[in-house]
Each structure stands twice: as C-alpha cells, then as structure tokens.
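ESCALATION

Customer reports they have been waiting on this structure for their group meeting. Please prioritize. Original submission:
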Amino acid sequence: MKPLIVTALAAAFAFPAAALAQTFPTKPITIVVPYPAGGTTDTLARVMAEPLGKLLGQSVVVDNKPGASAIVGTKAVANAAPDGHTLLMPNNALAITPHVSKDAGWTIKDFAPISMVSLQPMVLITNPTLPVQTVAQLIDYAKANPGKIDYATAGPASFGHLATELFMRQAGIQMTHIPYKGTAPIAQALLTGEVKLLLSTTTSQMNQYVKEGRLRMIGVASAEPSPLAPGAEPIMKTLKDYQAEVWFGLLAPAGTPKAVVAKLNEAIVKVLQMAEVRARFESTGAAPAPSTPEQFAARIADENASWSKVVREANIKTE
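Update from on-call: job pushed to the front of the queue and completed.
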C-alpha cells in the first residue's frame, strides 16, 4: 500500500504545479534591467520583450532601475513576489557585486535562474603605438616593462577590471589601472594613446576602428575564435586556462515555482532561436546563448566562486 500512497501524494503535489504553469502568466511581466536605458543589457531585453509577450499571451515590459552599480534594480527583484511576473536581466555583475560591495543586500541564492540570454567574449584591444601584435608579445613586453602599460576599465570592480586582473595574474605581469566613466571616454582615450590597452566586449564601432587600423585587436577571451571578433586569436592559445565572457540572462526571485521557471525557459529559448532576434542581437555585438535553468545556475555558481577569488587576492573594492 505504501508505494500507492507515495504515488498518490506525488500526483497531488504535481497537479497544482502543472495547473499553475498552464495559467501562467495572469498579468503583464516586468523585466527589470538594473542599468540605464540604451546600454547592451537594456537593448537585448527590449529586443526580446515583444516576441516573448506574444508567446506567453501577456505584455512584457522593460523597467530600468539603475543605481548603486546595479544593486538597486537587483535588490528590487530579489524582494519581489516569486510568481514569475517580475524578472531580472543582469550580467556577470550578479556573481561579482556581493564580493566587492558590503551594501549589496542579496546573494545569488536569492534568485532562480531561468536561462542565459547572450554571451559576448572579451577582447584585447591595443593602441597601435604599443609595439605588440600578439598576446605572447604583449606578455613579453609587459614583463620587460612592468607597470608601464596603462589599461582602461569602466571603473574599479567592473568586469573589465576583474578580467584584466585575472589576465595579469595568469600571465605573471603588472600593468597600471586607469578607470573611466563610460565607454565613450574609454574609446577616445584608447584612440589617442592616453591608455594603451583595453580588455572589454567589442562593438561594431570598435571593429570598425580595428579595420581602419586605428586600433589593434590581438586576442579574444573565448575558447574558440569568435565571429564577434573577426581575426582575433583566442587568448587560450597563449594562456591555457584564460577565459572571460560577459553573459546576460534572465532570473526570477528565489522560490518561483519550477513549473513557471520551465515555462519561461521554453518561451525564452524559442525567442532566441528566431532569425530576427538573432540578427538584432548580432548587430549589437552579442550572440544568443539560450540554456537550461540548471546550466545557467551552474555557470553563475562557478563564476561566483572564481571571481570571489580574484577579488580577494587582488583586494578589489568599489570606490
């Protein structure tokens, strides 16, 4: 009799979850972007919103909640009702911020991963006056000139800062950090030679500068060559274990029913397979990269551990 009782109980608990998935969503869905409008995260969220809404039968709106290095918007979703109607579209900062800011107010355990949305590999770009054309030459030059290469980032504890720190540690070199506020001043500083190196995601404008010879792209931080970084050799060929890619993804508050997460995942995967969505992603320098909730959760957990080590060893803090 016991197996029959267990089976009956399992079916009883499964029925509400299945019913919930069938009726979800019951109202408009909000995707909170913890950054200002116009950035990559915001752009990708808005590309997905309309087709995602059509698949789910409810409107999907993007709500920008910038502030405190993405903490404001992220915390708002962590505290939202776990019913699948309020989602978060973050990037790698989700796995980094709790380690560099005492005021984050959340950890990765406060979220239920739904799907990764996009991957953008970091690229090594130099001013042509820096006498190197390969990653190996860069490392040799930096070893011979410790601290004399100035590199740009979007600020202390930014992903570019951490990725460059990891690069220096694995290569056994030291360069000088010059933080900027925003991509526009970084691009200008690199073009004029005010700084000599940048490790960041690429853009169509950056690729154009490279094509014109105004900048030089010497490496890409993905395991394989990337169509988003034409002609760039994987840094892994020189530094065996080095990889740094910016991901974007969708998460719900922890406690969101698995059936709802599964339904959202199914819809997101379908959207990311649409030719029009793929084309619009690629025009921004991003590539669609759907995943299962489990795969996304594993990636976040791995990065949470690896970047916390970089933060700790380099003593990186926000200012």
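Sent to customer with the following note: Residues 121-237 form a domain with the D-Maltodextrin-Binding Protein; domain 2 fold (CATH 3.40.190.10).
Escalation resolved.
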